[in-house]
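Kindly inspect both lines:
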Amino acid sequence: MSHTTYTSGQPSAKGRVSLVGAGPGDPELLTIKAFNRLQQADVVLHDRLVSDEILALLPSTAQRFYVGKARSAHSVPQKGINQALVKWAQAGNRVVRLKGGDPFIFGRGGEELETLIDAGVAVEVVPGITAASGCAAYAGIPLTHRDHAQSVRFVTGHLKEGECDLDWQTLSRPGQTLVFYMGLGSVNVISQALIAHGMAPDTPLALIEQGTTQQQQTHIGCLNALPSAFLAGEVKPPTLLIIGHVVSMNAQLAWFDADQADAKGFHEGKHPTPPVE
């Protein structure tokens, strides 16, 4: 089956851009289409949260450019990234804009897509597993559960000028799970605001550090008792913040932690004893 990429105006015949979601870190969570686009790439512009294991899948002939953003430290302004995508595509290249997670969830993929369509560049979007679903799954935290949460909300934790400019009253309602992206620097503010607007102080929360990778660490606490590793300054980005009663299920469902422990024991020579027939 053939697929056609549509743009407004006259598409450029010289090149194309693929806005590709790299997922939360584990390279095996790439979609088949994402992997194929990486293998075909002439030029790749990648973000800070794209793992080294995924970058290692790029062909040696591909030109790589780091255009990542950290808090208050953007290596390349967004306008410059947009212009570079247009320039490389119009020069006849197969360009991959590689983003952590999904391009359309706090990834500015919409802004880039708008620029490319306006410039008449052939473009496609390749969705990726977003950090919320990927990291929660690897931490054994179901984002929805009939007994705990009937809805889930994705929220940016990068508060504007440190101010509480979110709809805290709505966020504090029961029966939902809150997932804050880029929220590590605002955990204290978020916790205090939710309590002030009626959320129970003992509501569980989780900070998932380097989710879905072999370095994953899941730090559990609650609104009025933040994880000790966070208070000690030991938690480093990339980190996802999950708040809600579903977090309590981590104690029972943390399959990935057990899987890592089993793998570590195997490599250290602690092999399981085979069953006796």
Notes: The chain has two domains: 16-129, 132-259.
